[in-house]
Amino acid sequence: MRIIWWVIAFIGLGLTLIPSLLVFRGMLTVSSHKSLMVIGMLLWFVSASFLLKKKTT
């Protein structure tokens, strides 16, 4: 299950970094950029919070 959270975290991180580069190069509109950044931010924060949670025994 932890591997799935890592994959989701990296997808979210990619959705926060790659759209910025695409807007800089003129390959993506600003409105699409904002949408992808919000989705990436939500994925990153949700998955990172589950990854940082300590295991209880």
Structural notes for this entry:
The mean pLDDT is 91. Helix content is 81%, strand content 0%. α1 (2-24) runs antiparallel to α2 (30-52). The protein has helices spanning 2-24, 30-52. The chain is built from two helices and no strands. It is mainly alpha-helical and 57 residues long. It has one domain (2-52).
Question: How many extended strands?
Answer: 0
Based on CA inertia axes, which overall geometry fits? elongated
What is the helical fraction, as a range of percent?
over 70%
Q: How many structurally independent domains?
A: 1
The DSSP helix count reads 2
Q: What radius of gyration results from the CA coordinates?
A: 14 Å
Q: How much beta, percentage-wise?
A: under 5%
Query: Which spans have pLDDT < 50 for at least 5 consecutive residues?
Result: none
Structural class: mainly alpha
Distance between termini?
17 Å
Mean pLDDT: 91
What composes the largest sheet? none
Order of helices and strands: HH
